[in-house]
Specification:
By secondary structure, the protein is mainly beta. It contains 2 helices and 21 strands. It folds into 2 domains: 131 residues, Sandwich (Jelly Rolls); 103 residues, Jelly Rolls (Sandwich), CATH 2.60.120. It is 8% helix and 47% strand. The strands form 6 sheets. A 6-stranded antiparallel β-sheet has the order 8-9-12-19-14-17, with no helix packed on it. Strand 20 and strand 21 form a beta hairpin. The model has no long low-confidence stretch (mean pLDDT 94).
Length: 235
């Protein structure tokens, strides 16, 4: 609840199912975006069509108070805008970058792009009202003089209008940014909320299967989740 899952694959494929009735195969270079709103459930499954590596990223975006209790939704995009610049290919996954825009839903001002480095330096223009971070998936990238390796997140800060990157060879990274979310978050398991009570109520709804999160037509069994620690302490 209260979040969007932004799923982007570099290689491989999997099958998405959710309680809205969506059933969508996602492949490399494609985007799945699920908005949970007040509540949704889903599964991510091996479609049984291939074996081998699956590599990608799934970003969780906290929904603002204006939409976090709204309806759930699901979107799939097989093709996304690309920009070719010196030493770099940019794929716009969510939001706008330069003159290119993704059609994917966004509930706040933000951007997510894949940066496919071909080797050498590149300077990218940034939106000064955003704060940014870089996540490297493959190879290594020099960002502001610091080497960023796979699995690392480099916080690039806010209030800047450009950033210089450099790679020694083919490398791949995600640049994410947005207007800082000033709301205080309270998060536990797959629930993004604003208070402990909201989390407690969501867990009870899931544990009793009261219909809030729906049902997924999946061969997988529904996850049983122990109470959050503050409720266990009361018992």
């Amino acid at each position: 609840m209260g979040l969007q899952t932004v799923t982007w694959l570099f290689s491989g494929e999997f099958l998405h199912r959710d309680s809205l009735g969506s059933e969508q195969l996602i492949r490399a270079g494609q985007l799945n975006l699920m908005t949970s709103g007040h509540g949704v459930s889903h599964s991510e499954e091996n479609p049984g069509l291939r074996t081998g590596e699956m590599h990608g990223m799934q970003l969780w975006v906290a929904q603002p108070s204006t939409t976090r209790d709204g309806r759930a939704g699901f979107e799939h995009y097989a093709e996304l805008p690309k920009i070719e610049v010196s030493n770099l290919t940019v794929t716009v996954i969510v939001g706008s970058f330069g003159q290119s825009h993704s059609r994917a839903r966004r509930d706040s001002e933000l951007v997510g792009v894949e940066l496919d480095f071909h080797g050498g330096p590149v300077t990218l223009n940034l939106e000064p009202t955003f704060e940014y971070a870089l996540i490297v998936a493959h190879g290594s990238v020099l960002a502001d003089g610091t080497v960023v390796q796979p699995g690392q997140l480099a916080y690039l800060g806010a209030g800047r209008d450009e950033c210089r990157f450099e790679s020694k060879g083919p490398s791949r990274a995600m640049l994410i940014g947005g207007v800082p979310l000033e709301e205080r978050l309270f998060m536990w398991w797959n629930f993004v909320a604003r208070s402990q009570d909201e989390i407690s109520n969501a867990w009870r709804a899931w544990a009793t299967d009261d219909g809030r999160f729906g049902r997924v037509a999946s061969p997988f069994a529904r996850l049983e989740v122990s109470p959050p620690p503050w409720l266990m302490a009361l018992n």
